[in-house]
């Protein structure tokens, strides 16, 4: 093998490596520093697409056995702001319904709803969350979810014990302003599995506290002093837009 070729190739590698590392570093943007003076990069933006089921907890029942479990779909975005903290937003469409736990009252309802939230994810930062850490993000990452947002809800109540059909006669609504709005506060847990450098698969369960007792269109006929709530169980795909 030509010795001069080897020397030239070695010199080129030594000269080019710092430039390549510097270029990769520049592509990540500005370096920030944690309170421990460890460097990290913000971002990237991660898009999330989810689907799952929704359930209701309110005046009629809190039991899954009396729920008419409904579908849920969501789309959102997340951005790494600090090691262990992601922030973003999410839009969700979901349906809920349930039958009454009290046979003597005999009520039931269905509701079609949409929500928009500002959310955060808290997790324990690992070595891969810092610019000076070895390797990439952790393969498994559990997190705590929290946020605040708005809910648009439109329930219909009726007398019965089954899901409504085209022949169902709905009761007069307790309010005349449906679809109505309420504030919501989600709290949940999740686990993300990193499938590749850009793709992650997440399992997530979230409960939503609300400021309304009319998620089921049953308030004056039950307990007007207690607000309704609901939960979502979803499987999400996450995709990073940048390295």
How would you describe this structure in keywords?
single chain, 243 residues, mainly beta, two-stranded antiparallel sheet, 1 helix, 50% strand, elongated, disordered N terminus
Report on the structure:
The protein is mainly beta and 243 residues long. 10% of the residues lie in helices and 50% in strands. It has one helix and ten strands, in the order αββββββββββ. The strands form two sheets. It has an eight-stranded antiparallel β-barrel. It has a two-stranded antiparallel sheet with strand order 1-2. Strand 4 and strand 5 form a beta hairpin. It is elongated, with a radius of gyration of 25 Å. The two termini are 38 Å apart. The N terminus is likely disordered.
Short summary of the structure?
The protein has 243 residues and is mainly beta. It has one helix spanning 3-27; strands at 31-33, 39-41, 45-57, 70-82, 85-99, 107-122, 140-159, 180-194, 199-210, 229-240.
Summarize the topology:
Blueprint: H1 3-27, E1 31-33, E2 39-41, E3 45-57, E4 70-82, E5 85-99, E6 107-122, E7 140-159, E8 180-194, E9 199-210, E10 229-240
Antiparallel strand pairs: 1-2, 3-4, 3-10, 4-5, 5-6, 6-7, 7-8, 8-9, 9-10
